């Protein structure tokens, strides 16, 4: 591990564990012992409390952290509407949002080297309202340069689940630094300040912003105590600070989908130590312990849930983050790809790499996306159907090197004007090409009871 210019600090070291109490200090002794807010915190630091839930939220849901920093976050000039970020205010607005039942699919979104993290975010779909802390938003991003020096960002609207599809994000946060590559994800909860650097060139990917609550691991039920995304594989950055109280910094806030900015004469990345339960984290999708059917039939995709953002209704998510990792299919006498279906949930899908087994027609490509809104019928395209019904049902490894994912929501999402028009990536023929070629096989004279497996 490299040692930083601050001597004792190390970039990119992590604490392991999801939803645990963590603590980290970049200077030994910076965390007060035994209490949170001593009269004079160690090293002349300020103590700042940072709440991710109401103070009175039940213990098992409560998320709060204590930050020990050089200056409190309150030391800054007034917030003003931010005019300097190109068209990003428009990028976040959903004024022309349309809820439509058409199946939608997008060609890979363009890379754009002229953008940084903030100007490279485009709102594609949304349901709900950050004012009411309800619902979710779905963005794609494409950036080719690091955020301007001495600039930091946060969203007051919700938690960002970031899914890079291409490139490396070096994310400097108040809690420490995270390196997040394609096939990894990270979550930056509401309010946490960060900068995104692009050390390896262009980046592209997807963001799910959860306006309500926080992401949790799904229940495991009869699976037992391990499986799917294991808690210990989530990685939390360690304290990493810069001692800069002489530079003008610009902070940009996404506040009800509009950008505001302010300046302060000190770095927001001045947290020398922290402890608590509210922090950013990352996860390598390659560590997902995939579980599936070893007898017959295609299981519900909930078996692939990495993280869930629950609604108030038990078992019903505002947003599930679901992945389709490489896995073995061994089911007997089974149509192995996803069944044809209509879902009371909306399904936004993206592809990080490779192919997706329900779509063999070639139109679902890495960096692209699809949306099957509430009750919009979909399933394997005609070519995937032919392959699946004709295939010899020997054990088959699907998706070697591939990774698709889904943001599944109980809410009907609207699609922005950018998503429907301005991005110019909508595949006009998606529906016709995928399902109209499906052949009729029905023959009243041929009896098949589908009981071969038992026979
Ligand atoms: O539509 C899709 O491709 C996603 C999906 C996958 C699956 O295995 C079962 C249901 C489902 O919606
Ligand atoms: Fe589906």
Automatic annotation (TrEMBL):
<keyword id="KW-0223">Dioxygenase</keyword>
<feature type="active site" description="Proton acceptor">
    <location>
        <position position="298"/>
    </location>
</feature>
<comment type="pathway">
    <text>Amino-acid degradation; L-phenylalanine degradation; acetoacetate and fumarate from L-phenylalanine: step 4/6.</text>
</comment>
<keyword id="KW-0560">Oxidoreductase</keyword>
<dbReference type="InterPro" id="IPR005708">
    <property type="entry name" value="Homogentis_dOase"/>
</dbReference>
<keyword id="KW-0408">Iron</keyword>
<feature type="binding site">
    <location>
        <position position="341"/>
    </location>
    <ligand>
        <name>Fe cation</name>
    </ligand>
</feature>
<dbReference type="GO" id="GO:0046872">
    <property type="term" value="F:metal ion binding"/>
</dbReference>
<dbReference type="InterPro" id="IPR046451">
    <property type="entry name" value="HgmA_C"/>
</dbReference>
<dbReference type="InterPro" id="IPR046452">
    <property type="entry name" value="HgmA_N"/>
</dbReference>
<feature type="domain" description="Homogentisate 1,2-dioxygenase C-terminal">
    <location>
        <begin position="287"/>
        <end position="440"/>
    </location>
</feature>
<dbReference type="Pfam" id="PF20510">
    <property type="entry name" value="HgmA_N"/>
</dbReference>
<comment type="similarity">
    <text>Belongs to the homogentisate dioxygenase family.</text>
</comment>
<keyword id="KW-0479">Metal-binding</keyword>
<feature type="domain" description="Homogentisate 1,2-dioxygenase N-terminal">
    <location>
        <begin position="13"/>
        <end position="285"/>
    </location>
</feature>
<keyword id="KW-0585">Phenylalanine catabolism</keyword>
<dbReference type="InterPro" id="IPR011051">
    <property type="entry name" value="RmlC_Cupin_sf"/>
</dbReference>
<dbReference type="GO" id="GO:0004411">
    <property type="term" value="F:homogentisate 1,2-dioxygenase activity"/>
</dbReference>
<feature type="binding site">
    <location>
        <position position="378"/>
    </location>
    <ligand>
        <name>Fe cation</name>
    </ligand>
</feature>
<dbReference type="Pfam" id="PF04209">
    <property type="entry name" value="HgmA_C"/>
</dbReference>
<feature type="binding site">
    <location>
        <position position="356"/>
    </location>
    <ligand>
        <name>homogentisate</name>
    </ligand>
</feature>
<keyword id="KW-0828">Tyrosine catabolism</keyword>
<dbReference type="GO" id="GO:0006572">
    <property type="term" value="P:L-tyrosine catabolic process"/>
</dbReference>
<feature type="binding site">
    <location>
        <position position="378"/>
    </location>
    <ligand>
        <name>homogentisate</name>
    </ligand>
</feature>
<dbReference type="InterPro" id="IPR014710">
    <property type="entry name" value="RmlC-like_jellyroll"/>
</dbReference>
<dbReference type="GO" id="GO:0005737">
    <property type="term" value="C:cytoplasm"/>
</dbReference>
<dbReference type="GO" id="GO:0006559">
    <property type="term" value="P:L-phenylalanine catabolic process"/>
</dbReference>
<feature type="binding site">
    <location>
        <position position="347"/>
    </location>
    <ligand>
        <name>Fe cation</name>
    </ligand>
</feature>
<protein>
    <recommendedName>
        <fullName>homogentisate 1,2-dioxygenase</fullName>
        <ecNumber>1.13.11.5</ecNumber>
    </recommendedName>
</protein>
């Amino acid at each position: 591990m490299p040692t930083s210019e601050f001597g004792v600090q190390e970039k990119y070291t992590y604490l392991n564990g999801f939803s645990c109490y963590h603590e980290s200090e970049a200077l030994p002794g910076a965390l007060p012992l035994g209490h949170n807010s001593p009269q004079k915190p160690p090293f002349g630091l300020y103590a700042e409390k940072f709440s991710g839930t109401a103070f009175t939220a039940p213990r098992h849901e409560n998320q709060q952290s204590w930050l020990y920093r050089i200056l409190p976050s309150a030391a800054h000039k007034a917030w003003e509407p931010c005019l300097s970020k190109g068209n990003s205010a428009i990028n976040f607005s959903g004024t022309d949002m349309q809820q439509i039942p058409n199946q939608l699919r997008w060609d890979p979104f363009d890379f754009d080297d002229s953008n940084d993290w903030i100007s490279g975010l485009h709102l594609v779909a949304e349901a709900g309202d950050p004012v009411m802390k309800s619902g979710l938003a779905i963005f794609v991003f494409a950036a080719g340069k690091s955020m301007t020096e001495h600039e930091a960002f946060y969203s007051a609207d919700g938690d960002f689940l970031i899914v890079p599809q291409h490139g490396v994000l070096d994310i400097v946060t108040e809690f420490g630094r995270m390196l997040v590559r394609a096939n990894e994800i990270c979550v930056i909860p509401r309010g946490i300040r960060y900068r995104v650097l692009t050390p390896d060139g262009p980046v592209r990917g997807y963001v799910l912003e959860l306006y309500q609550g926080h992401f949790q691991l799904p229940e495991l039920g009869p699976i037992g105590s391990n499986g799917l995304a294991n808690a210990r594989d989530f990685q939390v950055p360690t304290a990493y600070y810069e001692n800069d109280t002489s530079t003008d910094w610009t902070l940009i806030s996404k506040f009800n989908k509009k950008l505001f900015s302010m300046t302060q004469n000190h770095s927001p990345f001045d947290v020398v130590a922290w402890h608590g339960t509210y922090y950013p984290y990352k996860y390598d999708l390659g560590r997902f312990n995939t579980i599936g059917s070893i007898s017959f039939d295609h299981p519900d995709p909930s078996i692939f849930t990495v993280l869930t953002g629950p609604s108030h209704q038990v078992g019903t998510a505002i947003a599930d983050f679901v992945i389709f990792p490489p896995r073995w299919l061994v089911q007997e006498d089974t149509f192995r790809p996803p069944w044809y279906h209509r879902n009371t949930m909306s399904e936004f899908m993206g592809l990080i790499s490779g192919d997706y087994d329900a779509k063999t027609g070639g139109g679902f490509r890495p960096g692209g996306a699809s949306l099957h809104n509430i009750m919009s019928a979909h399933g394997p395209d005609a070519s995937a159907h032919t392959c699946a019904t004709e295939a010899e049902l020997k054990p088959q490894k699907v998706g070697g090197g591939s990774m698709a994912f889904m943001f599944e929501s109980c809410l009907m999402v609207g699609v922005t004007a950018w998503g429907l028009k301005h991005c110019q990536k909508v595949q006009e023929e998606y529906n016709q090409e995928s399902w109209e070629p499906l052949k009729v096989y029905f023959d009243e004279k041929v009896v098949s009871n589908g009981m071969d497996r038992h026979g």
